[in-house]
Amino acid sequence: MLFHSLDRPARQIQPGVAHLPNWLNASTQAALVTEAREIARSVAGTELAMKRPWVRGGQMSAYILSLGQHWHGRGYVQSLGGQRVPPIPESLVTLARRAVREAAGVATELVPWAGDFDPDVALINYYPPGSAMGMHVDAHEESSAPIVSFSLGDEALFRIGSDEAPRGPWSDLTLLSGDVVVFGGPARRAYHGVVAVREGTGPEFTGLSEGRINITVRQM
Ligand SMILES: O=C(O)CCC(=O)C(=O)O
Ligand SMILES: [Fe+2]
Q: Annotation-wise, does 192 bind a ligand?
C-alpha cells in the first residue's frame, strides 16, 4: 500500500520488459480473485487441483493452478487423469492482449506482438505468506511470444535479469496489486523470480485475505 500514493509511471525496466503499475482497476482485481477461487474450487480434490509442484527435487512454496494446459514442472499436458484442464476465461485473454499492446508502448521490443498475441495457457500462482519463487526461465513454451504477468494481493519483490546470467545482474521491482509486467523479445528467456512477498500489504478490495496471486498468460 505504501507505494500507491507515489507516482509510478509505466516504464521499460530493461529491453523487452515493461512494467505497467496499477493497470488493473479495483473491480477487475476483485473479479480475477473471485474467478481464480471458483476455478480452484471446481477442480479441488482432482488431479488438477491447485498444488505445490516439485521442480528438480524441490517442492515449490507457491501453489499452482493451470488453465488451458496443465504445467507439471517439466512441461505441459492437455489433460490429466482423463480430465480436461479448465479453459482460460475469454476475459483474461482480452486483458492480456490489451496489456501486450500497452506494454509495447513503453518497451518497443514488444511491438511485434502488440496485435498478435494468442495465449493458450494461464498459470495461477498462489503465494501464501512467507513463500517465494526461485530464479528460473519460463522455458516450456515453444513460442517466443511474451509472458503477461498480473499481480494481486500482497506486494512482491520481483527480480529479472538476462538469459545468460542466472546470478545477475538484476533489475528488482516491487509489484503491487493491480500491476502488470510483460516480458518478451530479448527478455523472453531471462531468469526471473520472486524474492519475497510482503505479508499483510495487499489492499482489502481484492477479497484476498492473505498472500498474493500472480497470473501469467502464455502462448505455446
Ligand atoms: O509471481 C510472479 O510475479 C512471477 C511468476 C513466474 O515467474 C512464473 O509463474 O513463472
Ligand atoms: Fe516465470
A: yes
The answer to whether position 66 is within a domain reads yes
Query: Domain holding 140: CATH number?
Result: 2.60.120.590
Ligand 2 ion: Cβ-proximal residues, 5 Å cutoff: 138
Half-sphere exposure of 148 (CA within 13 A, CB side): 31
As a whole number of angstroms, the distance between CA 200 and CA 128 comes to 11
pLDDT tens digits along 170-199: 999 999 999 999 999 999 999 999 999 999
Domain residue limits at 45: 11-218
**What spacing in Å lies between the alpha carbon of 155 and ligand 1's midpoint?**
13
Q: What burial class does residue 9 get, using C-beta atoms within 10 Å of its C-beta: 0-12 exposed, 13-18 middle, 19+ buried?
A: exposed
C-alpha 3 – ligand 2 centre gap (Å): 24
- Is this structure's pTM higher than 0.90? yes
pLDDT digits (tens, 9 = 90+) for 58-95: 999 999 999 999 999 999 999 998 999 999 999 999 99
